[in-house]
TrEMBL record:
This is Glutathione S-transferase. GO terms for molecular function: glutathione transferase activity. Signal peptide: none annotated. Residues 14-92 form the GST N-terminal domain. One of its GO terms (biological process) is glutathione metabolic process. It comes from the Eukaryota. Coiled coil: none annotated. Residues 93-216 form the GST C-terminal domain. InterPro entries: Glutathione-S-Trfase_C-like, Glutathione-S-Trfase_C_sf, Glutathione_S-Trfase, Glutathione_S-Trfase_N, GST_C, GST_superfamily, Thioredoxin-like_sf. Pfam families: GST_C_3 (PF14497).
């Protein structure tokens, strides 16, 4: 379903190529959207040590971005998600679609306080992560309140089925937990249910099993 590589594939590739760093972050929601939608893609993982040269190749100087088989490209996580998850992870109902976008934008906001941590040394990260955690908590509180208004028995954000909103939230929580040691399980039960629902999705399980087999 997907191929992992750390060398830029040939321009003649017939698969969309996702370029992002070799960690979770803002690229993982797009990887998951491809996996859940059952669409093949090339998972081009950039080493941090190569970023200076790779940045010059990126259409907007940032990642993630998608390079499509016809040579066109899509930048920004939300744009890439719309392409990867089309017809599968996007509700048809206009109201549910609006709620999905609401949750995606709310979840994406948590990355803003975390940006500084990606460029820090381990010692610097330890010194400031409590402050970043304090900045993230109000975002999580707003998300928890809104999810409680919409969450169904299946645990997803909207319409009782998985959507782009769930995988963006899942990745945001993963990043907050990893970067700030923030514990969601007691204070944010609705968010925790979303995370568990995504983890338990059959396509997500299959994706991570394949990654483990490839040592990614």
């Amino acid at each position: 379903m997907f191929s992992c590589c750390q060398e830029m594939p040939s321009a003649a590739s017939q698969l969309p190529r996702l370029a992002y760093f070799d960690f979770h972050g803002r690229g993982e929601p797009v990887r998951l959207a491809f996996a859940i939608s059952g669409r093949a893609f090339e998972d081009y993982r950039i080493k941090m040590s190569d970023w200076a040269s790779e940045k010059a190749k990126a259409p907007s100087g940032m990642v993630p971005y998608l390079l499509l088989p016809d040579g066109s490209y899509i930048t920004e996580m939300l744009g890439c998600l719309q392409y990867a998850g089309r017809d599968v992870l996007i509700p048809e109902d206009p109201l549910q679609l609006a709620y999905m976008h609401q949750f995606m934008h709310m979840a994406q906001a948590v990355w803003v306080p975390l940006r500084q941590l990606f460029a820090c040394t381990d010692a610097e990260r330890e010194a400031i992560k409590a402050d970043r955690r304090a900045e993230c908590e109000p975002h999580a509180e707003r998300l928890e309140k809104e999810i409680l208004r919409h969450q169904g028995g299946a645990g997803f954000c909207v319409n009782n089925t998985i959507s782009l909103a769930d995988i963006v939230l899942y990745s945001a929580v993963h990043t907050m937990t990893d970067m700030t040691d923030m514990d969601f399980t007691k204070k944010f039960p609705a968010i925790t249910r979303v995370v568990q629902a995504v983890k338990n999705h059959p396509a997500v399980k299959q994706y991570y099993a394949a990654k483990q087999a490839l040592n990614f």
